[in-house]
């Protein structure tokens, strides 16, 4: 039953600070043991997941409280951080999804029937011209 006590202590530490390495150090057990327990014991894995979630929620509450204290003390960076995340007027413009330029280039190469010969030094100007005309026509 020593293992149960160690696991309980580990889970308590994880609820306090949701970082596995820190909880291991405070409990005096190796991360390998924890991951072995998690992989071999679905019940322990469930308890560990719950302890991490509880610890993260607690840490989020704590950090939000600290942020609010800094805002009350008129710390500009804290104010800016809050506004850019919470206030629609100050939110940063969302970045559109990354455009897949490589796929677009592959499509153009295929449509124009270009080969590796077209990309050699002696043909690069003619190839660039073909691609430019193609793009202008779209």
Could you characterize what this model shows?
This protein has 138 residues and is an all-alpha fold. The protein has two domains: 2-86, no CATH class; 101-137, no CATH class. It has seven helices and no strands. The protein has helices spanning 2-16, 20-27, 31-40, 42-72, 76-86, 101-112, 124-137. Helix 1 packs across helix 2 (20-27), helix 3 (31-40) crosses helix 4 and helix 4 (42-72) crosses helix 5 (76-86). The relative contact order is 0.06. The mean pLDDT is 87.
Secondary-structure blueprint:
Layout: H1 2-16, H2 20-27, H3 31-40, H4 42-72, H5 76-86, H6 101-112, H7 124-137
Helix pairs in contact: 1-2, 1-4, 3-4, 4-5
Keywords:
138 residues, mainly alpha, 7 helices
Write down the overall geometry. Answer: elongated
Strand content: under 5%
Strand segment tally:
0
**Count of alpha/pi helices:** 7
Order of helices and strands: HHHHHHH
Terminal CA distance: 73 Å
Low-confidence stretches: none
Overall structural domain count: 2
Largest beta-sheet details? none
**Oligomer kind:** single chain
Helix content: over 70%
Please tell me the overall pLDDT: 87
Structural class: mainly alpha
Radius of gyration: 28 Å
